[in-house]
Amino acid sequence: QVQMVESGGGSVQAGGSLRLSCTASGSTATCMGWFRQAPGKEREGVAAISIYHTATYADSVKGRFTISRDNAKNTLYLQMSSLEAEDTAMYSCAAHNIWAQYCGLRRNDYNMWGQGTQVTVSS
Q1: Phi then psi for 87, rounded to 5 degrees?
Q2: Residue 27, Cβ neighbours under 10 Å: how many?
């Protein structure tokens, strides 16, 4: 059973930055991604990255967030800059091993999940 543990969440003012990390146990997953869920809203995909480092972003975070991964450390990162109040949510990392040239942001494709880390952005 793969375990995924997030860290790096916290509170920040609008315009600030945070870096999230997610360490996974077990073998290196084909696709890894970040999802977020705000109160009263559905979980949405934020960014995903393939084992070959090809990245996909939600339109709402393009140009502000950068996803990366270190396959040797089996660790996923999300660098978040120019944060907005609308970015406030519980952020979770996820992974799956279905081969894909590009890793998508459909949550149902992912079958391994972390518990999440809270990000709060105050305006």
Answers
A1: -85, -5
A2: 9
Convert the pLDDT of each residue in 62-120 to its tens digit.
999 999 999 999 999 999 999 999 999 999 999 999 988 899 999 999 999 999 999 99
Residue 27 scores a pLDDT above 90: no
Are 64 and 80 contacting, i.e. CB atoms less than 8 angstroms apart?
A: yes
d(CA 95, CA 73): 15
Residue 110 near residue 30, CB atoms below 8 Å: no
Residue 58 and residue 18: Cα distance in Å, rounded?
Answer: 18
And the tokens for 37?
A: 């869920």
Beta-bridged to residue 13, according to DSSP, are 122
Q: How many CA atoms lie within 13 A of 16 on its CB side?
A: 15
Q: Report the SS3 class of residue 16.
A: coil
